[in-house]
Amino acid sequence: MDCSREIEGKQAHDPLFDKIMSKSSRCVFVPGPVIVGAGPSGLAVAACLRSKGFPSMILERSSCIASLWQLKTYDRLRLHLPKQFCELPLMGFPSEFPTYPTKQQFIHYLETYARKFEIRPRFNETVSHAEYDKVIGFWRVKTVGKKLEETEYVCRCLVAATGENAEAVVPKIDGMGEFGGDIRHTSHYKSGKEFSGKKVLVVGCGNSGMEVCLDLCNYRAKPSLVVRDTVHVLPREMLGKSTFGLSMCLLKWLAMRLVDRFLLLVSRLMLGDTARLGLERPELGPLELKDLSGKTPVLDVGTLAKIKSGDVKVCPGIKKLKRHTVEFLDGKMENFDAIILATGYKSNVPSWLKEEDMFSEKDGFPKRPFPNGWKGECGLYAVGFTKRGILGASMDAKRIAEDLERCMKEKAAPYDHHQRSVLLLKSSSSSPSP
């Protein structure tokens, strides 16, 4: 991809080009794709591009790679899936790592990955606006730096790699200003140490909410768990294998609904009837629900035993907060010292990417479902929005690199022909008539 040659051609033959580009105080031409986000998704696509000889530039709003993992996750976090399902393209995990690597081990893996593929993101650059300029035929990506300095990057291709977990989801609960105690999202929770001996209400019964409850128990706090919806809780391992790995294997031979029935049967034998604990299951099976809505089943790492023993109390939804008091939907009221919001994250793409065709304004995800949501128009790509974790991001990263390689091979000859045609037209228009 030779964007510099194409830009030079536009400067030479398009009188509007220089006028349009001069609007920015600082403008940087990028000879390869611009990737927004230096998380696992951004690193994966940068490495795949580099393996095929394409340079790229990553813009990252934080001061480090994988900022979600490094700055916004709790200390006891481990990968929920076995490491072989969480590898980035072209480099596996060290053999000495355990089946479920710790947070620190995963960060080390990502840092090693970045060094191996010589990935050097531009840190502390927040993308405020990205839009395709039809006049010049390039993407214009505007950023704001740490000292509020503004820069505009101009590129042929743009890759949105900010992913599904860009911004914390903080629900509005009636009376939050009156509660008086600590209310924080899990992105600001590190460990249960500071809550020892305190009554803590955890809102959200996904993997994070369940693990935070377990962590609080380990530090002798008194957690309660708000369960507002149905949820599938599965053992992390079945029949000596990871539940996820076993599911993937069975799906090669059996229909999804049959695999779901098998998972629920084994779960019932291993965990008992979770509905009796206040954790009612959805009507759809865990795999079918994940496929249709992206809702991930909870893989139990010990929290269910704490619920059974009474160390974790299950509560209904919240109606209102008062001074250190929570009123639940069933009318009951209880005092708490703190509230932890395990309410997840959301995409922030609509806040900075100005286009209408590829991404949904409502949820910030590609409109086309997996596996077709990775490519848009005019050189726009997406990675990390599959609702299938790192495995899905890796698949998209490979597709993007392969697609760019194919496009560049197809455009190589036509590009030279176009340049020659422009020069020919220019010279013929300036020649005297016969």
TrEMBL record:
- Domain of life, per lineage: Eukaryota
Give me any GO biological process, just one: auxin biosynthetic process
List UniProt keywords, sorted A-Z: Auxin biosynthesis, FAD, Flavoprotein, Monooxygenase, NADP, Oxidoreductase
Catalysis performed (reactions): indole-3-pyruvate + NADPH + O2 + H(+) = (indol-3-yl)acetate + CO2 + NADP(+) + H2O
Q: Which Gene3D superfamilies match?
A: FAD/NAD(P)-binding domain
The prosthetic group or cofactor this protein requires is:
FAD
Q: What is its EC number?
A: 1.-.-.-
What pathway is this protein said to act in by its record?
Plant hormone metabolism; auxin biosynthesis
- Which InterPro entries does the record associate with it? Auxin_biosynth/cation_transpt (IPR050982), FAD/NAD-bd_sf (IPR036188), Flavin_mOase-like (IPR020946)
Q: Which GO terms describe its molecular function?
A: flavin adenine dinucleotide binding; indole-3-pyruvate monooxygenase activity; N,N-dimethylaniline monooxygenase activity; NADP binding
Family membership noted in the UniProt record? Belongs to the FMO family.
Protein's UniProt name: Flavin-containing monooxygenase
**What species does this protein belong to?**
Populus euphratica
